[in-house]
Write a structure and sequence with these properties.
heterodimer, A: alpha+beta, seven-stranded antiparallel sheet, 5 helices, 29% strand, B: alpha+beta, Alpha-Beta Plaits, binds zinc ion, actin monomer binding (chain A), Single_hybrid_motif (chain A), Abitram (chain A), actin filament binding (chain A)
């Protein structure tokens, strides 16, 4: 292992100089990417029989949202066998945006369907936009990597860009992390 | 071909019309030097000049200004004295080059045309509609003015020098120009369409020159509204304003940033200031005063930028400042060293190699962005896992490889969503003593690579990534820029540094 230790003389700036940045994480974990850049919001949704279909919205401070399934979603208990972005009249994975203003991205309402997942028991669930805005990107890598759906961040299904004037309206429909955890317990 | 005119009889005619000495000379195919002493130049040519003594001529010319130039030539000496003694000139005393920009009233274009039309009528053998009969007023004024300014201000003419702007006015100009509408309404139609845009002036110099030529003017109709030759003006032209603008200078250098809480430029979200200070302000506030420039007159440019929480070490990042209306065009080594020292006192930013550069040199900073290589050092964490020799060996990569990187979510609100190929030239990993979950990575990338995302993959939006190479979660705690491979500006060795 010795040969892998950083040599202090490699640069004018010594090793301690960058390792010092770890000092504040000596007795607490380094926050995850989601913790550092996003705020978690939850979108309540349930089947007619009362099954949990909650979504998780990772809200970036620049008003870009990443939409994914909440870990309490019933589908995870059943086992997900497929995700399909070709919903009804158009294939969401063909969505393309141009330029800084993401022109051409589909306009989404909070209940617009982005994808449909199928479970082991053949039941299907819609994944919806949760927020009003413009569809920027869908994560079609999930098709071949269904297990990621359950990983916070890695399991994002779509990226939606909020329009500034929809900001408050979108927030009002969502439930923040603290309130959501209170409801559950 | 037009015949050569008898210059004696011709100049006599011009004097009778009320034309001044300078303007008479303008019609005699003069050399520019002849304007220096116009009366002796005319004498040399055998012209019988107006008999008045200089003194009384001045008096007469005040009451009866020249019908063509409104006595602009007589104003020049006084104008130069006004420039020389102007308060506004003082702060530019270290600049030894100048250029002048003067704006003559458009009415003088009209009087020149009127005289041309008059000559076509009186001397049809000697003048034609295609060729200018005279040296234009603006050419003669420009040469005379610049020559005299060079002498009186002891500065040399240079397009990159101190700009002296001079504005003239003629009292009833618009009233006379408005007659053009009646003389040639067909020539004014385009102009009147634009009028809403240009409310202040009846007609622009360019528009006049383009549309009003003897070839497309009906002399009879012209004479119904304006006299040929032009009538004697009620007052001469007035100097309304003199203003000075210093040259634009460019200062380049390289900066280091030692703070993880400092943005490169002032950082606002909406109206709200997000962090105190910036690299740009730390540098500008010590450079601008030397050039007597307000910080707002300084534009900051750099070869890329680092995030707020990223330090920039090593030789630093090349930057340049564009300073408008500067009072100096040079920066000696000891002053530069002094400014470098002052910036360094901020403790969060330091600069080196500070020097004046040419505008043409800026392409080093602005272009070729993608070709530059950047050297980074990243402190990474495996969280609850420990580093192994296997991991470190996998991250010892000396063969360049390509990654595909989607625009990171954190900049997606202002950048286009696109998948960019980027080359990673080299990766080397190091373990840290007594910190088994930490890894230090030295990475050489193509410019424009998002290094944080290269490490943690941003939910697989960057592929391959350091995380995918080791098939483990790895995250980045801190990042430093260690070097930017760009040899601009040249290194400066300070004598007493
Ligand atoms: Zn004149």
């Amino acid at each position: 292992m010795e040969k892998f230790y950083l040599n202090n003389d490699d640069y004018e700036e010594n090793v301690e100089s960058i390792v010092a940045a770890n000092r504040e994480y000596e007795d607490k974990p380094f926050p995850s990417v989601v913790d550092r850049y996003f705020t978690r919001y939850h979108y309540k949704r349930s089947s007619s029989n009362g099954d949990n279909e909650d979504h998780l919205v990772l809200f970036h401070s620049n008003k870009v949202c990443m939409i994914m399934l909440d870990k309490n979603h019933i589908a995870f208990t059943k086992g997900i066998v497929d995700i399909n972005f070709d919903v009804g009249n158009c294939d969401r994975s063909q969505n393309q945006v141009k330029g800084k203003h993401k022109k051409g991205g589909m306009n989404m309402q909070h209940n617009t369907c982005i994808a449909i997942i199928k479970c082991a028991d053949d039941s299907q669930y819609k994944i919806v936009s949760c927020v009003q805005g413009r569809l920027v990107e869908v994560n079609d890598r999930l098709k071949t990597n269904l297990s990621k759906l359950n990983e916070e961040g890695n399991g994002y299904v779509a990226v939606v860009l909020l329009k500034p004037d929809n900001y408050q309206k979108s927030i009002n429909i969502l439930i923040d992390d603290a309130a959501y955890n209170n409801i559950k317990s | 071909m037009s015949e050569r005119i008898d210059s004696k009889a011709f100049s006599e005619y011009l004097y009778d019309c009320g034309v001044c000495d300078y303007c008479v000379l303008r019609y005699l195919k003069p050399q520019y030097e002849e304007f220096w002493d116009v009366r002796s130049s005319l004498k040399k040519r055998g012209i019988k000049i107006a008999p008045e003594s200089d003194e009384s001529f001045e008096k007469k010319s005040k009451t009866n200004p020249c019908i063509i130039c409104y006595n602009v030539f007589h104003e020049i000496d006084e104008l130069i004295q006004k420039i020389k003694n102007h308060e506004g000139l003082k702060k530019y005393n270290q600049i030894n080059t100048f250029l002048s920009s003067f704006c003559l009233p458009v009415l003088l274009e009209l009087t020149q045309l009127q005289m041309w039309l008059t000559l076509l009528d009186k001397f049809p053998e000697n003048f034609d509609k295609e060729r200018l009969p005279d040296m234009p007023i603006k050419d003669a004024v420009k040469t005379l003015l610049n020559d005299k300014l060079e002498q009186e201000l002891d500065k040399t003419f240079d397009p990159d020098g101190l700009m002296i702007s001079i504005f003239f006015n003629i009292e009833n100009e618009n009233e006379i120009l408005s007659k053009l509408d009646m003389i040639a309404p067909e020539l004014m139609t385009d102009r009147n369409k634009q009028k809403k845009k240009y409310k202040t002036e009846v007609i622009s110099r360019n528009y006049f020159a383009k549309h009003f030529q003897p070839t497309n003017i009906d002399i009879k109709k012209f004479q119904e509204h304006l006299p040929l030759p032009p009538s004697i003006p009620s007052s001469s032209l007035q100097l309304t304003q003199i203003s000075f603008t210093g040259p634009t200078v460019f200062v380049a250098g390289r900066y280091n940033k030692f703070s993880r809480h400092l943005s490169q430029s002032p950082w606002f979200i909406g109206e709200k200031r997000m962090s105190e200070g910036s690299v740009q302000e730390s540098i500008t506030c010590h450079v601008a005063p030397y050039f007597d420039a307000l910080p707002s007159a300084v534009t900051f440019m750099s070869s890329g930028r680092e995030d707020v929480d990223v330090r920039c070490l090593g030789r630093g990042r090349p930057f340049a400042l564009e300073i408008t209306d500067a009072t100096k065009t040079t920066l000696d080594s000891s002053t530069a060293a002094d400014i470098e020292r002052k910036v360094c006192q901020s403790r969060v930013v330091s600069i080196r190699d500070l020097q004046i550069v040419k505008r043409d040199d800026l392409h080093h900073i602005k272009s070729g962005e993608e070709e530059k290589r950047k050297i980074y050092r990243a402190l990474c964490t495996l969280r609850d896992k420990n580093v192994t020799e296997d991991i470190l060996t996998k991250l010892d990569i000396s063969e360049p490889f390509e990654i595909q990187q989607w625009t990171p979510v954190r900049v997606l609100h202002r950048r286009t969503l696109i998948k960019r190929p980027r080359t990673i030239y080299k990766v080397k990993a190091f373990a840290v003593k007594d910190k088994p979950h930490l890894v230090v990575l030295d990475i050489i990338t193509q410019a424009g690579t998002y290094v944080k995302e290269l490490v943690h993959s941003e939910f697989s939006r960057t592929e391959p990534s350091i995380s995918s190479i080791i098939s483990m979660d790895i995250d980045i705690i801190a990042l430093d820029v260690m070097n930017i491979e760009l040899n601009f500006p040249p290194t400066v060795v300070r004598e007493n540094a």
